[in-house]
Write a structure and sequence with these properties.
9% of the residues lie in helices and 35% in strands. The chain is mainly beta. The protein has one domain. The protein has a three-stranded antiparallel β-sheet, with no helix packed on it.
Length: 81
Amino acid sequence: MNRNVTGLFNSFDFGLAFGACVDLPMGLNLTLRYTDGLTSLITGLQGLNGARASIKNQVAQITVGYKLYKRDKKTQDTTSR
């Protein structure tokens, strides 16, 4: 059974993201980010009570990273001028 459902989905998704990053000792860093979708992913979806339903993206991210290259303070001062 093949069914084409591409017409049910919006081709564009718009959202808002915000987050923060913290540099930790020994070259580690921690990043927290949250993204909230502002547009519905599905078109024409009806809820149980007949009201228009909306399905949106929501993403929470936690990232731990390691810096392979660390610039010293002298290099940063001369390159920022």
